[in-house]
Design goal:
414 residues; alpha+beta; Immunoglobulin-like; Rossmann fold; 3 domains; six-stranded mixed β-sheet; five-stranded antiparallel β-sheet; 9 helices; 26% helix
Length: 414
């Protein structure tokens, strides 16, 4: 897309040319006609020089990092490949930034020398921006504005289309669930099903091609005269569950329309994502559920940071939903025994605490994170066994988490 408006100087030249033609006819001065023709020719030449000026062949835009979190600074670089028949003057470039992205996306676009070879000119542009709102944001298009050498005409070119930038919720580093050295929390509670008592008394089996040499049972091999290996150890990781109540009754209508529009909902998304990250890194197998049991993500294996990154990216577009209720949550845990269970929701009252009460007997560490909680509701939830955290926009989740994290003692998964 290009616009070809006249500058103030160009507009004045056209007006002066028309005036010269009119006056020349009235007072019969041929020289004024010549002046008018020169002015019109100069303006036309200015338009022609812009038309034969730089044209974009290709624009390559890069973000660093490619996927950012709310509040993170992103470096943007763009390489513009151009071709031009005539030398061009310097101009200005501007990148269009949407709401929720802040930055000074403007600069000087250098003049280009003459050249007919496509791709013969490349211009590198760059700036930094800060992400303020979760979601997928269009960055661009990049536009360049130049004027002709006489300053009569101005051309604005759109060099590319908008490029999406994914902004994930802000992750808060939460403290470990156990104050122990080395592997912590869930990773320490790997259960081993052994046949026999102790490492030396494992029932061995014959060596098979592909078995690791580190698993050879040397004592049994010496006794039987053949290579023997230790019996397979069956390991299981404790389970943690994060429930995110997205029902619209807990949030404003803005949370339903677009990511990043409701401050309270954004706190909840950040809290849920941070809890999932804490448990995965600590060695728990983590399920991420909606209030009615619908999966917000595939279950994450302990320590699977790749899957964790994919889940955090999927949270970039998470919004509230019209249906769902905490009344559907407690039945999900009937007949199960789990490690930590974290429920993230909006304001909770006494009735909500009663609905969630049955969950506490199925979890070694039930945590209720409420954004904008009602004091009576929190006290009722605490009375039935929940560890409660009330979040407000001015609160820091990690500080609230740390208030009770060192005091848990034996309340651990397993």
């Amino acid at each position: 897309m290009s616009r070809w408006p006249l500058t103030i100087r160009g507009t004045g030249a056209v007006v002066l040319a028309i005036t010269a033609f009119v006056v020349a006819g009235v007072i019969a001065v041929p020289a004024l006609t010549f002046v008018g023709v020169l002015l019109i020719a100069a303006v036309a030449l200015g338009f022609a020089s812009l038309h034969l000026g730089h044209r974009p062949d290709h624009v390559r835009r890069l973000f660093s990092p490619e996927i950012s979190a709310v509040g993170e600074e992103v470096a943007v670089s763009a390489r513009v490949e151009c071709r031009t028949l005539l030398p061009t003057t310097a101009g200005t470039w501007r990148d269009q930034l949407p709401a929720g992205i802040e930055g000074d996306a403007v600069g000087v676009f250098p003049g280009l020398r003459s050249g007919l070879v496509p791709g013969g000119h490349s211009v590198d542009l760059g700036y930094r921006m800060t992400t303020r709102r979760r979601g997928i944001h269009p960055i661009g298009p990049l536009t360049v504005t130049t004027t002709d050498p006489f300053g009569f005409a101005r051309r604005t070119q759109r060099l590319d289309t908008a490029v999406p930038l994914t902004v994930t919720p802000a992750l808060v580093t939460l403290s470990a669930l156990e104050e122990l050295p080395g592997d912590v929390g869930g990773g320490l509670q790997t259960a081993t099903d052994r046949l026999g008592q102790g490492a030396d008394n494992l029932i061995p089996r014959s060596y098979q091609p592909g078995d690791s040499m580190r698993r050879i049972h040397w004592r049994a091999s010496a006794h039987r005269g053949d290579l023997m290996v230790r019996q397979e150890e069956q390991e299981s990781h404790p389970e943690a569950v994060v429930v995110f109540d997205r029902s619209l009754g807990r949030w404003s209508a803005d949370a339903l329309r677009a990511p990043g529009a409701d401050t309270a909902f954004e706190l909840a998304v950040s809290a849920a994502a941070s809890a999932v990250a804490r448990f995965v890194r600590e060695g728990y197998t983590v399920a991420v559920l909606d209030a009615d049991g619908g999966e917000l993500a595939e279950p994450l294996d302990a320590g699977d940071t790749t899957a964790l990154e994919a889940v955090i990216v999927s949270f970039a577009t998470l919004t509230a939903r019209r249906d769902g209720s905490l009344a559907d949550t407690a039945p999900l845990f009937a007949g199960t025994t789990l490690g930590p269970v974290v429920v993230v929701t909006g304001p909770v009252g006494e009735a909500d605490a009663a609905l969630l009460a049955p969950i506490t007997v199925h979890s070694s560490l039930p945590v209720l994170i409420s954004v904008g909680a009602e004091p009576l509701g929190l006290r009722a939830a605490s009375a039935v066994g929940w560890r409660t955290l009330s979040l407000e926009p001015t609160d820091e989740l990690n500080d609230l988490w740390d208030q009770w994290a060192p005091e848990r003692g034996a309340t651990r998964a397993g």
